[in-house]
Amino acid sequence: MSRTRRRPGRLEMTEEVQFPVTPMLDMAFQLLAFFVLTFQSPTSETHLDLSLPANPAAMPAAARGQADPIPARREDSDLENDLWIRAEADDLGELRSLRLGEAVVPDLGTLGDRLRRYTKVLEGRPLRVRLVADDGLRYEQAARVIATCASAGVAAIRLADPGSAPSPSGNLPRIAP
Fold it and tell me: Residues 25-41: what's their mean pLDDT?
C-alpha cells in the first residue's frame, strides 16, 4: 500500500491492483499453437471452378479512359451440350428412378451407355451433365450416379438445385435408344 496526501494533515490509504499478464500470454500462445497445429489446408474437393462472365463495364479502364474487354474464352456455354439427369429417391433414400432429360432410364448401366453415345455424337466437344437429385437421396447413391457419368467420359458434372431444372421440352439432341 502506498500513502498519498489529499488534504493537509490527513493521510489516505490507496490499494494498487496487480494485473497478472503472464497467464494471459500463456493462454494466448497455447491457443495460437492449437490452431496452427490443427489447421488443414483446403483440398481439391473444396475447389469450385467458376466461369464468370466478362463484363466490360466492371473492368479497369484503359489509358484512353475506355474499357478494353478481355476476349471471351472458347467455351460452349449454351445448353446444347448440357444434359440434365434427375435422380429421384424413395422414402429410404435409395435411388428410385433416373431420368436423362425427359427419358426414363432403367438403371445406371443404361445411363452409362447412353452417355457414351452422347460423347460420340458430340465428336470431341465436351459433354457436361447437370445432376438434379432429390433432397432425400443418400450420398452413396448420388456418388454412384456421378461415378457412372465420369466413367462414360463426361467432361464436367455439375450439381443443380431441384427447382432449377429446365422444362420437360429440354434442349437435348435426339439419338436412337
Answer: 93
Q: What is the CA radius of gyration of the chain?
A: 32
* Cell numbers describing residue 72: 471471351
Assigned domain for 60 exists:
no
Instruction: Convert 1-12 to b/e letters by CB count within 10 Å (16 or more is b).
Output: eeeeeeeeeeee
Domain assignment present for residue 74? The answer is no
Helices and strands (DSSP H and E) totals, the chain: 3, 7
Provide the residue range defining the domain that includes 136.
82-164
> Tell me, what's the pLDDT at 76?
46
The 10s digit of each residue's pLDDT in 61-113 is 555 556 566 655 444 444 455 789 999 989 888 989 999 888 899 999 999 99
Q: Which three cell numbers stand for residue 69?
A: 474487354
Identify the residue whose cell numbers are 452413396.
Answer: 140
Q: What is the count of structural domains for the chain?
A: 2
